[in-house]
# Entry
Amino acid sequence: MEILDGLTVINSFTLAELEVGEHFLWKIGNFSVHGQVLITSWLVIGLLVLASVAASQNIQRIPSGIQNFMEYALEFIRDLAKSQLGEKEYRPWVPFIGTLFLFIFVSNWGGALVPWKLIELPSGELAAPTNDINTTVALALLTSLAYFYAGLSKKGLGYFKGYVEPIPILLPIKVLEDFTKPLSLSFRLFGNIVADELVVGVFVLLVPLFVPLPLMALGLFTSAIQALIFATLAGAYIHEALEGHGEEEHG
Amino acid sequence: MFDFDATLPIMALQFLLLTYILNLVFYKPLTKALDERDAYVRENEVDARERLSKAEKLVKEYELQIAGARRESQSILEQAQADAKNINAQKTAEAQQQVQSEREKAAQEIQQQKEAAMQSLEQQVDALSRQILEKLLGAELVR
# Structure
């Protein structure tokens, strides 16, 4: 009996609890929004803006501290964009791809590292914004819009000629691609983050001490990789649109 | 799990806003800083390379000068040695000549004095032989 009592004592500290599909709903007019997602996304945005302002407030030729760190981040993003878009075209797309990477990365790591469970909400729980399908779909749709914009602004309506080149038979597949791209982007990110949080949640529920740590480390790893993949694929899609659906790869 | 609602457009707008803000406070200023640093480093490198080549040229020039000076000093040394030898030989010859002439002069003097001494001796011999004759034969006979 005492052992059981001890167990209930441990379980009374609910550090993790499985809640899937429960939301902290806010009503705005006729629309409902997921409050917990927006709150964490605001925190993420605030963190990014604060770090950026702190880094660029007093720019020195010899960087130090936060400026050095953010310059490292910027160089990483620039290299990422450059490797996807090429030396000539990458500059205007650095902000979009970089913000994708930073937002997803900080969201994922924030969801994995910050013990959100300690903050009580009326319903639902605070977690990474990327834990919600709305966020990932929003980002994926923006990526689609971005590559359409890239193609149209570069080639005008001639961009759509790329759909029937080199042979028109591929037209349905190419149209289909425009739907599968955002779908795969959003579901890959969403699935990975949700799966990671669920696995960690289940493990914490079963064995609250030490055992979930390797999984959490793995979660951090996958989170970082997912952010990188999302940004890299966005870059690749934009590059494809700029180059013209693949046939001028070396042009 | 898959319940879409107004979160989606709000999130999209938020994201675009974030992109805009970060472009203003992060990408633009830091990209500018990076580019400026690149330019600064490149400039300094070019400058330093120029200075290096200049310094190397100076070193070469100085080395040439040193070699010239060394050659010059060598030739001066040789000249001085030759001069010294010449002077030496000349002085030696002069001294020998002087010695020779002095010896000749001395020999002449000796000869002169010898002759003078012989003359005076001869006169004395004459006088003495006369006295000897006078003593032996008497004054009347000698005359």
Q: What stands out?
A: Chain B has one domain: 9-142. Chain B has two helices and no strands.
